[in-house]
Amino acid sequence: MLKAAIVGCGAIAGVHAASLQNMDNVTVIGCADIRLEKAEKMATKLGCPAYASLEDMLAAQKPDVLHICTPHYLHVPMALKAAELGIAVLSEKPEGISLEQLDQLAQAEEAGARIGICFQNRYNEAVEAAREHIASGLAGKIKGIRAFVTWNRQAPYYTNSGWRGTWETEGGGVMINQAIHTLDLIQYFGGYPTHIEGKIQNHHLKDVIEVEDTATIYMRLPDGIPAVMYATTAFAVDSPVLIDIVCEKMTLRLEGNTLKETKPDGSASTPVRSAEYGNENPDGKCYWGSGHPSLFHDFYKHMEEGKPFPLNAKEGAKAVKLLLALYESSKEDKVIEL
pTM for this structure? Predict the structure, then answer.
């Protein structure tokens, strides 16, 4: 039985906790939050002790895995603290908010730290099916990719958090918090870009946040394949993410957790579905995808077998490096070569 602990007991931690409760090979031995009442509420559900800080928890407990669900700027410092104690890390995205932090995590991993990053949408069944279509040659070569993320975040989402909405603690806006998953999937499907150019803007919360609520991106993937993306939190609702992968033999459309194939003649196949959009999540948060439980099972399976987890710090850094390059492109008004 592997022992897990959770630091940061906000909304996303609830998804971690609910998933871990359904795993036969894992027991949660502690949870920590600087707002002790939040840790106590989660601890009651899990039947474990609550702590007011990560330091207090690690002084009292020795978990095999630390689940990091804290504000972005704390991910790397907490991961390094766990690594020093020989504790594996499963961190929410982003793994870091600067190139310096990414380098620190990479060095820890190279020194032997076990690190996993939660890009759970890679585990959505529709995503896996699309990857199989591409890898098998069924879809043909990719000709281009486009993606749309149109969600809604209002002022209280930022003002009530104590950390969102600033470059120092969140590290960005819609791109680093919400749309990073979609950015990751673009390069997961089409390969790591060679060039990126884009603009970030703040449209609807100018007096509330200093980070972007909207981004437009143009990328060139390997072999010159174009990829375009639009992301915003200024829309009216959280709409399902839409990704079109235009291939030689068909277009693969991922919308929410549904995959549809459209042939060049316009004929469409029966959609491939994993679940009704959002229903698989313990907290019903559609925009997190349905892959957290599958990712956790895979991570702990690799732990038990003593094998390296593929979605490690090196792999998880790819999307962060892309969005940092986007921020540089927007600031400098130039194309960034990667």
Answer: 0.95
